[in-house]
Amino acid sequence: MDLKETHISELLIAGNIDAVKTLTQQAVDDGCSAQDILEKALLPGMDIVGQRFKACDMFIPEVLRSAKAMHGAMSILRPLLIASGVPMVGALVIGTVQGDIHDIGKNLVAMLFEGAGFKVVDLGADVKPETFVQAILDHQASVVGLSALLTTTMPRMAEVIQAIKAAGLREKVRIMVGGAPVTADFAFQIGADGFAPNAASAIEKAKQLV
Ligand code: B12
């Protein structure tokens, strides 16, 4: 089945929540792999949403509808991505830092980590430093993932790292940071262990770190 012919990307950009979910299910039923649907239809669609939002060709309510459509498709793909994984390799605590409600990229990273065999503790978005610290303790995490999509919330990542240090946990965890404005240089500056520009390379990096 040719994923282009399903028009999933176009419907995602148009924010057609029901159609994206239905067609994602159909594509799965027709034998498309979850990874192909993600990489060939959904992610390219979200890229265009980002470009149009930036160019002011799309506004927040429209972007939100596309985000909801993406979440709907993901509810179908999530178990399939996870099922294609390997046995548990460690626990990951992940969240979007305080003040930032963007969670689509973070959710993708979390899903692929689950698929890669990690136990994933997803704290959601707008997460306080002390919540990360408590979750590391509660779940004996070996990896922490911090996401930020706003230049104004990037400094919150450094605050989380400080809180982890203050709790005496810095040596116990590998800290990875990501999100569209985050760079490898920034990760180095704030004392993180790793950076990845996308979900797939985040898994590779984490496996090198643990
Ligand atoms: C969708 C979206 C929204 C939605 C969010 C819905 C949701 N549930 O997430 C809504 C409409 C709510 C929104 C709100 C706002 N947004 Co917004 N949003 C976007 C948009 C269009 C797409 C983001 C997205 O989901 N991308 C798709 C995902 C898959 O990509 P990603 O997040 O980058 O994640 C990938 C990698 O970065 C990486 N990654 C991500 N996290 C992590 C973590 C780790 C550990 C690792 C290793 C890797 C990793 O892997 C992911 C998968 O490959 C971007 C534009 C853009 N191109 O980024 C603007 C954008 C981020 N938003 C922006 C702005 C300004 C805002 C608002 C302030 C707007 C306003 N005036 O109110 C508010 C902020 C609210 C807040 N306090 O957070 C700006 C930020 C500018 C800046 N430099 O800071 C952007 C860049 C748009 C723009 N060009 O102006 N937004």
Q: Any descriptors?
A:
single chain; 210 residues; alpha/beta; Methyltransferase, Methionine Synthase (B12-binding Domains), Chain A, domain 1; Rossmann fold; 2 domains; five-stranded parallel beta sheet; 58% helix; globular; binds cobalamin
Task: Compose a concise summary of this entry.
This protein is α/β, with parallel strands linked by helices.
How does this structure look, described?
The chain is of the alpha/beta class and 210 residues long. It has helices at 3-6, 8-13, 17-29, 34-54, 60-83, 104-115, 129-139, 154-166, 184-189, 199-209, and strands spanning 90-96, 118-122, 143-147, 174-178, 194-195. The chain folds into two domains: 3-83, Methionine synthase domain (Methyltransferase, Methionine Synthase (B12-binding Domains), Chain A, domain 1, Orthogonal Bundle); 90-209, Rossmann fold (3-Layer(aba) Sandwich). It contains ten helices and five strands; from the N terminus they run H-H-H-H-H-E-H-E-H-E-H-E-H-E-H. A five-stranded parallel beta sheet has the order 2-1-3-4-5, sandwiched between helices. Strand 1, helix 6 (104-115) and strand 2 (118-122) form a beta-alpha-beta unit. Bound molecules: cobalamin. Cobalamin binds next to helix 4, helix 5, helix 6, strand 3 and strand 4.
